[in-house]
Specification:
about 450 residues; alpha+beta; seven-stranded mixed β-sheet; six-stranded mixed β-sheet; about 20% strand
Length: about 450
């Protein structure tokens, strides 16, 4: 029997209510693949058509009640057109980072159509070296009930040979399929280790009901707000002026092993090294001598215990960034000491969320970050750093080379977000900034590159 309309959770409603004026609550990524004759828009449409039954929310739209007398609900879109959600574009020459970033910025300046399911994929050609990018875009309000099962989970394969996914029992009709049953069938088939790892993530994400997922997210979001209220205000910086409608985007990258070594040499972790590089970026781009106190970043931290063999237990904390410390290694040490204390607190552990074994950052994490809003200026920027898989993934036989996350700006006046994803030996940074940010996000990315080089260089 078809399920009825699904009520939106508190986190859903918060995301939708925040999208007013210049605010856009879309999250996404720019995935860069090696070129190949099989990686076309038609191939992406075909892949999604074969696997979309695993994520029924991608066929659901919002239904508003007349005069707004009740909360909107999720309902199956009876006019669903998969082809409409998959776009195609070609970058202008030379097809480098700047051209790709400009395309992402343009798309992240445009809101999703609320009359349709709230997601899009863009297959982008024209990149140098005959590479192809897939730009993903989805609304925060799609998080609850989907958990770690996002479009990347079903789009990608852990080997060049595509996984065989059992088809649905019957052609799709406007109702909610039994996702857990389909995934149980998948897990019962003989997968390679990487394939089983991928599907384990999806299976665990579906073990809890959508209501339980919504409750977990709401509790974690409430914790972030309580932590924010308990802290002194963050300093006023150029990062915290009112938002304009449009965005800029910029890319940066680093070697994961080099960052790990730099963090370890300074008595910290790779996460501390990443935060130290972001600190160095701000020190280069802001008049830090005039700040009354250190800028504050909202970041995820791992609170996984030794007994937890699978998955990552992630919580969020507010971290003061030591911009007045000129030595990059000392920055790492200060950050390591601060995050060690924070992640050992009982409140932070109580607000932890479990992410999947593959390490793909689920929309849940970004949702929690975006919920840190309100009247108090608790943070200056978001640094969304969640570890990703260290094995290669593929689409239509083409290897995924790079993955740059896109984290939306905070509606409470936060003009810069830094998304970070480690994948297959690399660390990939996606900087989303307000178009009026001064200095512009392109300068921020260049400064981040300089800070990364300083940190991993022989004299760091």
């Amino acid at each position: 029997m078809p399920d009825g309309p699904l009520a939106l959770s508190a986190a859903d409603r918060a995301s939708l209510a925040a999208e007013r004026g210049p605010v856009n609550m879309a999250v996404g990524a720019a995935l860069v693949f090696e070129g190949g004759p099989s990686l076309t828009r038609d191939a992406v449409v075909s892949r999604l058509a074969a696997r979309l039954h695993l994520i029924p929310r991608y066929r659901q739209r919002l239904e508003e009640t007349p005069l707004g007398v009740a909360q909107p609900t999720w309902v199956d879109d009876r006019s669903f057109e998969l082809e409409w959600h998959v776009r195609q574009a070609t970058l202008p020459p030379p097809g480098g980072d700047a051209e790709l970033a400009a395309y992402v910025a343009h798309e992240m300046s445009r809101r999703l159509d609320r009359g349709r399911p709230l997601w899009e994929l863009h297959v982008v050609g024209g990149l140098a070296g005959e590479r192809v990018a897939v730009v993903t875009k989805m609304h925060h309000a799609m998080v609850d009930g989907v958990a770690a099962v996002d479009v990347g989970t079903v789009l990608l394969d852990p080997t060049a040979q595509p996984m065989e996914v059992p088809p649905p029992d019957r052609p799709w009709q406007p109702e909610a399929p039994d996702r857990a049953r389909h995934l149980a069938r998948l897990v019962g088939t003989p997968f390679a280790r990487g394939q089983r790892l991928l599907m384990d993530t999806a299976t665990r994400a579906l073990e809890s009901s959508p209501r339980r997922a919504a409750d977990d997210l709401r509790a974690a979001g409430d914790l972030v707000l309580e932590l924010a209220r308990a802290r002194p205000q963050a300093p006023m910086t150029p990062l915290n002026l009112p938002l304009s409608p449009n965005r800029r985007f910029a890319l940066a990258r680093a070697d994961l092993s080099a960052l790990k070594a730099a963090g370890k040499a300074a008595g910290g972790t790779v996460n501390d090294a990443i935060l130290a590089a972001v600190t160095g970026m701000l020190a280069r781009c802001m008049a830090v001598d005039g700040l009354a106190r250190a800028p504050v970043a909202l970041v995820p931290v791992s609170v996984r215990s030794d007994a937890e063999e699978l998955g990552n237990r992630i919580s969020t904390v507010f971290v003061d960034l030591p911009v007045h410390e000129p030595d990059p290694r000392r920055r790492v040490r200060e950050l390591a000491a601060a995050t060690r204390v924070l992640k050992d607190s009982s409140a932070v552990r109580a607000g932890a969320l479990l992410v999947g074994a593959t390490g793909w950052a689920p929309p849940a994490i970004s949702s929690v970050l975006a919920r840190a809003m309100g009247g108090v200026r608790a943070l200056n920027l978001v640094v969304s750093n969640v570890p990703g898989p260290q094995q290669p993934f593929y689409l239509a036989g083409s290897r995924l080379l790079e993955a740059f996350p896109v984290v939306p700006l905070n509606p409470a006046g936060q003009r810069l977000s830094v998304g970070v994803l480690s994948y297959d030996g690399g660390v990939f940074f996606g900087l989303l900034g307000d178009r009026e940010l001064d200095p512009p996000v392109e300068r921020m990315a260049a400064a981040l590159g300089e800070a990364l080089e300083e940190l991993v260089g022989p004299d760091a």
